[in-house]
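Appendix B, record 7
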Amino acid sequence: MKRYQFTLVELLVVIAIIAILSATLLPVVGSAKAKALATQCNSNMKQITISLQNHANMQSNKGRLPVEYSDKYDAVPESWDNERSWMGQLVYLNLMPEGEAVSSDDANRLVLNEVFYCPADVVVQEWDTSSYALNHYLAAAKKNSKDEKLTQAAKSLNSYKSPSNLAIIFENPQDTIAGDVYYSIIVDDLSDQVANDENDDPLSLMCRHSGSSNVGFADGHVKSMTRDELYEMYTNVYDNSSDAKRKIAQNFFGVTEAEINANDWEAQYIKSEKY
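Structure tokens (predicted):
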């Protein structure tokens, strides 16, 4: 019985078909993976947003978010620094669960729960890092007469009429290679100013989900916003041509007309250093 053998032409045709299928399917698989990462990030931020709401609803907090960094809470365990990041404050108050892994720099410091990290982010998971950052204008402690940081945030969420449009948490515009990680976001972080090259500006680093970024709002919902939408919020804060757009942007960041007109809203609050 004569055995059939593939000719060279037939083998080349099969290889070509496989190559075409691979070229067609790989982008689809990559897109599906990217969507899955964005969905998980959205879920993480949703949990944190609810935790932030619970913090604000505590009677002693009077509608306030945790401050970016606070020395209000005693260190537990004792090896922890006396000051705590907003993430550590949520864990301390049992509003978020602790992580189980142990940090490499201190055997007694627990790494934060994985919910604090976006699966698409490359940040090293430690006791004081997170893929997310608070709205600076809602989480900054106001300066007192002695220029000292207070233990409560300067503003209360209860003072805003439209919580569904008030952003309280963003994705962190960090560049771990450059060593830049943020506790909070300011308006200018949403500008298109270039740090090193066009891929290193904060806004690009925030939009790690195919050009979009998740944002959590005071009413508890989380929304995916494109780079253009976030940049528009930045430009509208300073835009005098449209009162309607300007007010929406002001509410988005939680800043007032008086603060903008005074041109010293950065000076009124203490901005946490990058760590």
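Remarks on this record: The first strand starts at residue 69 and ends at 70. The CA atoms of residues 258 and 264 lie 10 Å apart.
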